[in-house]
Amino acid sequence: MTALFLYKNEINMKKFLLFFLVFIYTVFPQAKPYVILVSIDAFRWDYINRGITPALSQIKEEGVSAISLQSAFPTKTFPNHLSIITGMYTENHGIISNDFINLFTGERYKLGDTVSTREYKWYLGEAFWETAKRSGIKTACYFWPASEVLLEQKHPDYYKKYDKKTTDNDRVDGVIEWLKLPYKDRPHFITLYFDIVDTRSHEYGPDAKETNESIKGIDSVIARLKNSLSQTGLKDSVNLIILSDHGMTGIDKNRSINVEQIINDPACKIINTGPVALLHPAANNIKAVYEKMKKNENHYKVYYKEEVPESYHYSKHPFIPEIVAIADLGWEFIDNRIAERQKTGGGKLGNHGFDNHQLDMHGFFVAGGPLFKKHYATGTLLNIDIYPLLCRIFNIQPRSNIDGKAERIEFILNNN
Ligand SMILES: [Zn+2]
């Protein structure tokens, strides 16, 4: 009798506890974290070691820092912002270059051409803001490639149309305005993007004083962001992830390879020049073009699409053309038009897009806030692992078809 009474009491107690927990979660929903994901375009892995970035160095010192953040191939801006935000290699998310064509229809995707970059059909991956939105998390982008896609479910709740002329301070202030919205409207995941270091280092090279000036300038913008966060009262709740899409290396016009001269075939489309030449010959001429490139293989490597080494993850997508040539670090493919221009102008002194295993092409990564370990330095991280990291932070399910892996990166979070 006594035993039965105790048993019934235990069941009642369990029921009560269950009811109590449901009540607590309903009345006080679990607090959602805040994350601001900042991208400083072309901020090479080692710029933070130059002793000119007090704000970034403080985040590095107090929170998590990686030796570098390895980009996906090719080490270009749009492909890598998409790899960061989808967790996929470029061959899988579909943005295989800043500028490429649909080989079957001739339609072109091009950075700067907002008609093409706002069309959802090019994007095969799911951006983190889509995953988050589906889970009821409000999202916002103060610039990020693909954030302006016109299809409602493919863009964040709030976004700004890219305008290079928007000052960096205005970008920071815009993010702060979002954080001041009433709780029900306030985004918990926000991106922020700065282009100035990329612009200056293309123009003057990675070691120029003008590049260092732009690095110092961005550091003071980061300091402003930290100060403004303090004023919102959210400073202790906000997690900051600051990273870059790729690095930068010195180039000069004496290290040019005129691919148009080498192939000497007007029927072959040269889709990209620069660090990577993408060649689309006429169907009956693929072998001939490949053999000419192979015969002249000096300061570059040429591959049939299906033979591009596995480590580049650059074979699968149908818009990668039949022949891919990758220049040695610091060398560049040009065509006759660029060769003509080089005769008169000085040319640019920095570029990226090369082999993503080259350290010069690596970006940087620092993070701070309540969810990150303190005073924690680690080795190189992969940028395809940022998307699953974000899913882990917000406790939501990542897409199953991604290349990134939470297991490779989650150790930078507390309680891991
Ligand atoms: Zn660039």
How would the blueprint of this fold be written?
Blueprint: H1 2-27, E1 34-40, H2 54-62, E2 64-66, E3 69-70, H3 77-86, H4 90-93, E4 99-101, E5 108-110, H5 114-117, H6 128-134, E6 139-142, E7 158-159, H7 168-179, E8 189-194, H8 196-204, H9 209-232, E9 238-243, E10 249-250, E11 256-258, H10 259-263, E12 269-272, E13 276-280, H11 286-295, E14 300-304, E15 323-327, E16 332-334, H12 336-344, E17 350-351, E18 365-368, E19 376-378, E20 381-382, H13 386-394
Parallel strand pairs: 1-8, 1-9, 2-19, 3-20, 6-7, 6-8, 11-16
Antiparallel strand pairs: 2-18, 4-5, 9-18, 10-17, 12-13, 13-15, 14-15
Bound molecules: zinc ion.
Zinc ion binds next to α8.
Q: Give the strand line-up of the largest sheet.
A: 7-6-8-1-9-18-2-19
Helix segment count? 13
Mean pLDDT: 94
Largest sheet: 8 strands, mixed
- Structural category: alpha/beta
Distance between the termini: 48 Å
Gross geometry: globular
Over all CA atoms, what is the radius of gyration? 24 Å
* Percentage of residues assigned to helices: 25-40%
The CATH topology annotation of the largest domain reads as Alkaline Phosphatase, subunit A
Return the CATH architecture of the largest domain. Answer: 3-Layer(aba) Sandwich
Q: Give unreliable regions as ranges.
A: 24-29
